[in-house]
Amino acid sequence: MIVTDIVPLDKKRSRIYIDYEFAFVLYKGEFKEYSISLNSEISMASYEAITTKLLPKRAKLRGLALLTKKPYTEKQLRDKYDAGEYPEAVIDEAIEYLKGFGYIDDVKYCLEFFETYKDSRSLTRMKNDLRGKDVSGRDIEKAYMSFEESNDSGIDEETQIRRILAKKRFDPDEADYTERQKMIASLMRKGYSYDSISNCIRNSDF
After folding, report:
1. Cα–Cα dist 81/89, whole Å
2. Residues linked to residue 25 through DSSP beta bridges, in sequence order
3. At what angle do helices 55-69 and 74-83 cross, to 10 degrees?
4. Residues 77/103, Cβ–Cβ less than 8 Å
5. What letter does residue 12 receive in the DSSP assignment?
6. Which of 3, 104, 173, 175 is the most buried (most CB within 10 A)?
């Protein structure tokens, strides 16, 4: 195996190419430790030390550092690793490690998401938002079942709509046709159904 190219990524890191194919990213200070130099051979021992010890450890620590700041879905964390140009096998190992200790749990992520936005977003909007984060439909539904169990009837969309109307000081009796349609469109963009919106506006005792 020959190091055929070394391409600076930033001031500290470089992309290493072996036999004309991208292999991994190393810090410049690691070149000497693993005998990395342009047009020289890299030993199997060094290659395995990098790909099975150095990079997996770095990826695990990177994942832990990210997760201490905020929760991530599995897909979001994979995207972070991809941006860092970690090899696929290293990413898989780090993800399994973090999942094994419960640091990555998409169902838990969804449950916390429902709890956070239960008073400000429609159920449809929340589910769409979670799908946009590449959470599986199965994990979303599993989380919502748990959410319903701990919140009696789950999301009460009409209560949410009435709260929004009251906050905006919207009076259906005073609003003209254009103002009503504008409010309906605004609520529908938030994910509320037309039937729920119409029912709240017709029975506007809030």
Report:
1. 11
2. 15
3. 130
4. no
5. S
6. 104
Long-range contacts of the stretch 170-173 (C-beta < 8 A, 24+): 171/204, 172/201, 172/202, 172/204, 173/204
In this predicted model, what pLDDT tens digit does every residue of 169-203 receive, in sequence order?
888 878 888 888 888 898 888 888 888 888 888 76
Average pLDDT over residues 8-14: 93
Tell me how crowded residue 193 is: count the other CB atoms within 10 A of its CB.
Answer: 16
Look up residue 187 and give its two tokens. 């609520």
pTM: 0.72
By CB atoms closer than 10 A (0-12, 13-18, 19+), residue 157 is buried
* Strand (E) or helix (H) holding 5: strand 3-8
Instruction: HSE, CB side, 13 Å, CA atoms: give it for residue 29.
Output: 2
The 3-state DSSP class for residue 29 equals helix
